[in-house]
Design brief:
Layout (H helix, E strand, L loop, with lengths): L12 E2 L15 E3 L3 E4 L5 E4 L17 H5 L1
Parallel strand pairs: 1-4
Antiparallel strand pairs: 2-3, 3-4
Length: about 70
């Protein structure tokens, strides 16, 4: 599916609610993991559109530094 992005250009992504064709071989069977989907025919890996980089420990709202503890 073509979804242009102004900063990155064209990005291939796997969408769970659509028929996805492999950019390498055109196949439509996928092995879906947590972050990527892999083509069952040629093993091309495509990132999941719904896989966000969120979770415990990735981002901190309040960063504590040794200087702020001394005050």
């Amino acid at each position: 599916m073509f979804r242009p992005d102004k900063t990155n250009g064209y990005r291939v992504a796997f969408h769970a609610d659509e028929v996805n064709h492999c950019p390498g071989c055109g196949g439509t069977q996928w092995l879906v993991g947590r972050l990527v989907a892999e083509c069952a025919f040629c093993a091309a890996a495509v990132s999941l559109a719904s896989a966000g980089m969120t979770g415990a420990g990735l981002f901190r709202a309040n960063h504590v530094t040794p200087d702020s503890l001394a005050a």
